[in-house]
Amino acid sequence: MNTFQLFNGLTFAALLFVVASGFTLIFGLLRIVNLAHGALYLFGGYIGYTVATRTGSFVLGGIGAMLAIAAIGFVLDQGLLRFVRGNELRQVLLSLGFAFVLNDLALVIWGGDSFTVPIPQVLRGGMRVFGVFYPTYRLFVLVTGIVVFAGLWGLLNHTRLGALIRAGVDDAEMVEASGVNIRRVFLVTFLLGSALAGLGGLMGGAFLSLYPSADAEILVFSLAVVIIGGRGSLVGVGVGSLLVGLLNTLGQVMFPELAYFVIFGPMAVLLAFRPLGLFGKAA
Amino acid sequence: MLEVRDLNSGYGEAHVVRGVSLDVGAGEIVALLGRNGMGKTTFIRSIMGLTPPQINSGSITWRGESLVGLRPHDIAARKIAIVPQGRRLFPSLTVIEHLTMLKSARAKTGWTVDRVFGIFPRLAERRHHRGGQLSGGERGMLAVGRALMIDPQLILMDEPSEGLAPVMVQHLEEIVLGLKREGLSILLVEQNLYSALAVADRVYILETGKVVHQGDAATLSQQTDLLFQRLGVQ
To answer: Which of B54, B75, B90 is best to mutate for the A interface (most A CBs within 10 A)?
Structure first.
């Protein structure tokens, strides 16, 4: 793998991190495997695309995608998932059904063509880093991934809300018995996780492009990241994203026919020895 | 303050608590004794609004207001705190985070981090250790400290002496009596009879979900045949 491919792996890992960190927050705290997360990513990408093209502002596209997907997450959580709390199978099926609805809705609104979110002028072109000429936008994605990691790290480890979220991952009932309305913490977490999917949609939409079924691809990668990293662990998502991002690039370059196997083979081996993932803890 | 009348609660078909009536007055320490599996923890969970169990019938009244059907955080907001069985600390949180997650570190009223550290200096020394890295005694102290941070008027303590060395049990008894002097009420669930009798004003004995004896602690400690019969101690 040369430097250019290494950067490809790292920038893909950064995108995966943004999407999968939202996924793991929801999975870790609410115990919901939200299979609509990929659909939220894609829908966020479309909305970000529309806002960015209409307003000509990439930043507004990002804000629009995050707000809109948080709002859709609100509907999903309060309108639907609320009624099947504690029943994991129903949550999974419900979120999968929601994903189908959202995807069909996207097909109705945006059609089946592929879109690429327009990149702002300053991020176009490339720059020389470590001896290679590399697209500026993909470096921006890498930086954004790092910024999101730092932001979430600070939120989780240095705020009261973060302490409540971590405590809730450990023992939600005890948080509630200590006088905290855990459902409100759940909701905030769900909205934050959804907004991160929306942000990922915009970011990914500018270099992977948006098309029907892009949601399933990102969902499979996110699942792999979270399973490898361990449920609810931010560091786990970071490490998992790097592994999946780099293995994916390695697989595509060296064994194109086995690209998926290069990710899921090692994952299966890992799970045989660490069923809870690298940083996972028993519930 | 707390009045429980004819409480029946359990898990589905399993009726665990059967018609229990119990009172805890202001500034009173009431001990609920009984062997393993007699429904003590189920009773405590029912008061705190934790589900399961479900409450099938009966009433739980706190300062004139019914607690049945309220969610645990609503009950905690009415100044009832719990020190649960097994402590249930948060392994991901440091000692100080267990306290500050419930109340800002800058709060000045009621119980503060400094006040909790004042009665448990050991916790202050270990403030940056995580829940999972503490000794049994420290875990017990932290569970009590966490309960105090909501400024409770009633603390439900489920076997706080469990797994503690005798010297720690004694320390705990002093803490419990100190809280009583501050005007707190305590409902103490215990298997450790001697620890309970050392601090309690009144005692209830639970057997297969029913109250089989109630009376004041001083009298009970003289009734050795009753203690033997109900609790198997001599």
So the answer is: B90
Q: Is residue A16 part of a domain?
A: no
A163 in B contact zone (CB under 8 Å): yes
- With contact defined as beta carbons under 8 Å apart, do B217 and B203 qualify? yes
Q: Three-state DSSP class for B43? A: helix
One-letter amino acid of A7: F
**Residue A160 resides in a domain:** yes
Query: What sign results for the dihedral spanned by CA atoms B122, B123, B126, B129?
Result: positive
Q: Which chain B positions have a beta carbon within 8 Å of A281's beta carbon?
A: 91
Say if the Cβ atoms of B146 and A178 lie within 8 Å. yes
Residues 6+ apart with CB under 8 A from A38: A99, A215, A216, A217, A218, A219, A220, A222
Residue recorded with tokens 């934790």: B50
User: Is B100 in contact with A167 (Cβ distance < 8 A)?
Assistant: no
Spans of chain B below 70 pLDDT: 233-234
User: For the packed helices A37-55 and A58-74, what is the interaxial angle rounded to 10 degrees?
Assistant: 140
Rounded to two decimals, the ipTM of the complex is 0.93
Q: Is residue A26, in this structure, part of any structural domain at all?
A: yes
A166 at B interface, C-beta within 8 A: yes
Cβ(A240)–Cβ(A228) under 8 Å? Answer: yes
Shortest Cα distance, chain A CAs vs residue B75, angstroms? 7
Of B81, B84, B93, the CB nearest to A163: B93
Contact A178 B150 (CB under 8 A): yes
Question: Count of domains in chain A?
Answer: 1
pTM of the model: 0.89
Q: Which residues of chain A neighbour B131 with C-beta distances below 8 Å?
A: 170
- State the sign of the Cα–Cα–Cα–Cα dihedral A210, A214, A220, A221: negative
> What number of other Cβ atoms are within 10 A of residue A70's Cβ?
20
Tens of pLDDT along A124-177? 999 999 889 999 999 999 999 999 999 999 999 999 999 999 999 889 999 999
Point out the residue among B72, B81, B101 whose CB comes nearest to the CB of A160. B101
| pLDDT (0 to 100) of residue B138 | 93
Tell me what the mean pLDDT of segment A35-64 comes to.
96
User: Are B101 and A167 within 8 A, CB to CB?
Assistant: yes
Those residues with Cβ within 8 angstroms of residue A14's Cβ, 6 or more apart along the chain or in another chain? A141, A142, A143, A144, A145, A146, A241, A245
| Amino acid letter, A230 | G
Q: Which residues of chain A make contact with B81, given a CB cutoff of 8 A?
A: 178-179
Q: Which domain holds residue A163?
A: 22-213
For residue A7, being part of any structural domain is answered with no
